[in-house]
Every structure is written in structure tokens, then in C-alpha cells.
Amino acid sequence: MYATTFLMRDGRVANLDAHLRRLRTETTFHPSAEEEVLATLRSAGPGVFRPHIEVVGSTVSVDLRPAVMPNDDVVVDAEGIRDERRRPTRKGPDFGWQVHQLQRVRNQGADAGLLVDDRGNIISGIFSSVLYLSGGTAHVSAHPRAAQSITLDATLAMLIDAGVDVVEHPQGLPMHQLRTKETWLMSSLEGVRNVTGWMEYGSTLPPQITGLPRGGAPTHREINERMWASASSV
Question: Is RNA-binding found in the keyword set (predicted)?
Fold first, then answer.
């Protein structure tokens, strides 16, 4: 099983070619099905949608779900969630478990949560990748349980073009760094979101930014604007 979702606005999708390429390479569906997927996306017409594409064997289904443009700021639950995904690097098999965890943290007042390993290191968000900025360098979780992210790859390409260095952390990211640095969550559904609050014991605390300034990195809003400016029509 493979499943993916992303945001579509007025018939346009950010990084569409990358989504279609991953659909071709990670599933067994016949290439001719790609046009059927695109035809279904085109049928949505104007507006904001969250297509959910699922592949089981050679069968492809597309569920068009109405959506709203996401807020590009996010409050994150500060208590890490032990990662219990069975196939963490593949999109789809653990979708139900991830949805349950997301609903749980939202019921507690946060917008998102973080998955941690046995040592408490941050692997990723529940449905997103994570990085923090410090001194003109982007620090990225490259944990072996972190899934590949189209939006993270596009974000890093823009940061590198702006002269930002990228450091990958194969052991994941320590929570204290995320809480004291400018931290972003990135997903194809919600774009690039800046963490503006940490939910802890029922209270929302702002990040305590310390250390070197962020350098010349573009803001998360600028990254989102560039992605939509270059988005492709379906």
C-alpha cells in the first residue's frame, strides 16, 4: 500500500512533478494511470482541495477532499510521541496510527506533534519533516526512520540557493535545540510552518530563541510564496 496527500489550490500543486515521479517509482501502478489521476484532479475545478491518492497493487484511487489554506504558524506538543510506525520510511501503511496521534495532540490544544526514538531524539513530525535554523545553517533530521519529504527537499534547495548551509543529523534532533531555535515543520499538505508555540502541561510557551542569529535564510513565508509561484497546473 502507498498513500499520499497534498494541497491543491485552483488546479495548481506545488512540486507536482516530484509527486508524480514518486508515485511512479514507489508503486506498481501502470504509467497510463497517471493521466487518470491528473484528470480526477482537474475535475475539482477552482478552490482549495486535499487530494488523497492511494495505491493498492495496481489499483489507484483519488479522493478529492475540500480544504482551506493552512496557517503557516504552528503550535507543537512538546511531549514527544514514541514512534511506533511499522514501515516508517514508506507513506501509507501507518496512516491510521499517524492520524490517531495527530487527533490526540489536537484534542490537547496543539496543532502538531513530534515523533521520537527510544533515546528521545526527534525523528520528524507526525506527518512532516523538521529543521531548525541557527547562524545561517539549517539543521535537518536525517534519522533512519525519517521518511523522504518532497517539501523538505524543495525547501532545502531554496535555502542552499540563498547561501544557507545544511547539516544533516543522522541521530535525529535534540528537543532542546528545537525549543531554542527557529524551527520549521514541512509537509506537502501544510507547506512550511514556523513553530510559534510549544504546548506543555496545558500551556502554550513561546520559543526561547538563543544563540547565533538565523543568518540570511529566507523566511518560511517566503519559501511558501516561492513554492506557490512555481506551482504547476494539473
Answer: no
